[in-house]
Every structure is written in structure tokens, then in C-alpha cells.
Amino acid sequence: MKKTKITYWILTGLFAFVMTGSAIPNIMVNPISVQGFKEMGYPIYIIPFLGWAKLLGAVAILVPGFPRLKEWAYAGLIFDLLGATYSVANSGKAFGQWAPIFIFVALGFGSYIFYHKKLKETAAITEANQSDFRIKGSIQSV
């Protein structure tokens, strides 16, 4: 359980850090972001929206609880990264300019996989503790 939790938090922390680092320039409508979006033919007004969506997604995967919100956040962040990869690749950029995005996609998938491993292990421990409690309770009542 401990290794799973540590791995989960390392991957999730790195993923949230990367997505937040990408979100802030978008929120601030950084000139480099504007140039990149113009080169790909996207409207400028979408930049701050994507920035806020990434920031909220990063917060959602870090906050404990809210499993349904986490699922949506993971999906949204991965869609953002895959969409960015597709857009940059199809805008004629060299392979070396868009291929590294797959590292961040892998980080997101790793975080998501270990999130579910952590949930399963926590559920198994909770179930074991509850069955121990039921056994002890029935022994004491006899």
C-alpha cells in the first residue's frame, strides 16, 4: 500500500505541476501562447478558457475525495494533451516539437492508473478491517 501511495502522489504531483505550469501562461494570455495558437489557426479567445480548465483539472486531481470529479478531470487533462499533440503535429511542426507531449500523457496515465490501484487497496483494507470487526463483535456477543 505504501509504495502505491508514494508512486501515486509522485506521479500526480508531477502531472499537476506540469498542467499548472501550462495553465498559467494560458490564463495570462502569454504572447508565446498567442503566437502558437495563431500558427495553428485557433482563435485567441480560447486560450484563457483552456488555461482555467487545466488549472481546475489540476486542482481536482489533487483534492482528496470527489471520485467522479477526478475522473472528469483526468479525462479533460488527457484530452487537452492529446488535442495539443494532434494540433501541433498537423500544423506542420517537426516531430521533435510535439512528440515530447507524450511524456506528459504517460505521466497522466500513470497517475490515473495508480489512483485506481490506491482505491482498490484502500477498499481491500477497509473490507478486511470491517470483517475483523464483525468477527470480534460476534465473538464478544456469544
UniProtKB/TrEMBL annotation:
GO terms for cellular component: membrane. It is found in: Membrane. It comes from the Bacteria. Keywords: Membrane, Transmembrane, Transmembrane helix. It is a multi-pass membrane protein. Its main location: membrane. The chain crosses the membrane at residues 7-24, 44-65, 72-89, 95-115. This is DoxX family protein. It comes from Spirosoma arboris.
